[in-house]
Write a structure and sequence with these properties.
Catalyzes the condensation of isopentenyl diphosphate (IPP) with allylic pyrophosphates generating different type of terpenoids. By secondary structure, this protein is of the alpha/beta class. The protein has one domain (20-150, 191-240): Undecaprenyl pyrophosphate synthetase (3-Layer(aba) Sandwich). The chain is 43% helix and 14% strand. It is built from eight helices and six strands. A six-stranded parallel β-sheet has the order 3-4-2-1-5-6, sandwiched between helices. Helix 3 packs parallel to helix 4. The structure holds farnesyl diphosphate.
C-alpha cells in the first residue's frame, strides 16, 4: 500500500471512488464580488480565496484525487489596479512561505506554470524554493498557474519547436501531440478530467486551452470564497453522472 492509500478518507455518500477524476482544475472566480457583498475591500475576497483553496487541496488529498491545478493569476490580470496586483503578488509569496512546511509534511508536490520570469524576483525565489523542496512528494500534485495564459503557452511551445526544427533537431513530420505537449508549461502533467469554475461565468478565460480539449466543465454560481467541501462533492457528483466519449459514440 502506498502512503497515500493509507491516509484516504471516506467519500461523501453517493460518490464512487473508481469514478473520481484524477485531475481537477479550478478557475477561482468571484473573490471581488464576495468581498463587495460583505462590504469589504476586494483584497479581502482574495484572502478568503486562499482559505478556500487550502480546503480544496486538503479535500482532494483526503479523497485520493491525484492532481489539482488552480488558476491564480492570468496574463490579463496585470490590467487590474496596481494596488490589487501588488497585493496578490505579496499574498502568493506570503502564503507560499507560510504553507511550505505543511506541504512538505503532507507530501504535497507544488509546482508553478506560466511565464514566471515576469513575476517579482522575490516571488520567483519563493516559487523555486517551494518547487525544489517538494519535488519528490507524491501524495498530490498541486499546480498553480501564475501569469499563465493558454494562448501564450501555445505560442511559446510553437517557438521552441520551430527553433528545434531550425537547428535540425526535429523534423516537421515528427511534430505530433506528444511532442507538442512536451513543450507546454504543463509537460508531464496529465490533462484535467474536470474543470470547475465558480461565480457562474461560462468561459475558459484562456485557461488550459490545449489541455481542456476533452475535459468536463462544471460551473457553479457559488463565489470562490464560499466554495467548500459540500460544493466540491456536488461538482464531483455531477462529474460522475457524465458519460465521457472523447469524440467517440
Ligand atoms: C478571481 O476573482 C480571482 C483571482 C484573480 C485571484 C485568485 C487568487 C487566489 C484565490 C489566491 C491563491 C493563492 C495561492 C498562493 C495560489 P475576481 O477578483 O476576478 O472576482 P470578481 O470577478 O468577483 O471581481
Amino acid at each position: 500500500m502506498t502512503a497515500q492509500q493509507t491516509q484516504l478518507q471516506d467519500l461523501p455518500p453517493g460518490l464512487k471512488r473508481e469514478l473520481l477524476p484524477k485531475h481537477v482544475a479550478v478557475i477561482m472566480d468571484g473573490n471581488g464580488r464576495w468581498a463587495k457583498r460583505q462590504g469589504l475591500p476586494r483584497i479581502m475576497g482574495h484572502k478568503r480565496g486562499v482559505d478556500a483553496l487550502k480546503d480544496l487541496l486538503r479535500c482532494c488529498k483526503d479523497w485520493g484525487i491525484q492532481a489539482l491545478t488552480a488558476y491564480a493569476f492570468s496574463t490579463e490580470n496585470w490590467k487590474r489596479p496596481q494596488e490589487e496586483v501588488d497585493f496578490l503578488m505579496t499574498l502568493f509569496q506570503r502564503v507560499l512561505r507560510q504553507e511550505l512546511r505543511e506541504m512538505v509534511e503532507e507530501n504535497v508536490q507544488i509546482q508553478f506554470v506560466g511565464n514566471l520570469n515576469a513575476l517579482p524576483r522575490s516571488l520567483q525565489e519563493e516559487i523555486s524554493r517551494s518547487m525544489a523542496e517538494t519535488k519528490d512528494n507524491r501524495s498530490i500534485r498541486f499546480t498553480v498557474a501564475t501569469n499563465y495564459g493558454g494562448r501564450q503557452e501555445i505560442l511559446q511551445a510553437c517557438r521552441a519547436i520551430a527553433q528545434k526544427v531550425q537547428q535540425g533537431l526535429l523534423q516537421p513530420d515528427e511534430i505530433d501531440e506528444a511532442v507538442f505537449e512536451r513543450h507546454l508549461y504543463t509537460a508531464g502533467i496529465a490533462d484535467p478530467d474536470l474543470l470547475i469554475r465558480t461565480s457562474g461565468e461560462m468561459r475558459l478565460s484562456n485557461f488550459l486551452l490545449w489541455q481542456m480539449a476533452y475535459g468536463e466543465m462544471y460551473i457553479t454560481d457559488t463565489l470562490w470564497p464560499d466554495f467548500d467541501r459540500v460544493e466540491f462533492s456536488r461538482a464531483l457528483s455531477a462529474y460522475q453522472q457524465r458519460e465521457r466519449r472523447y469524440g467517440g459514440v
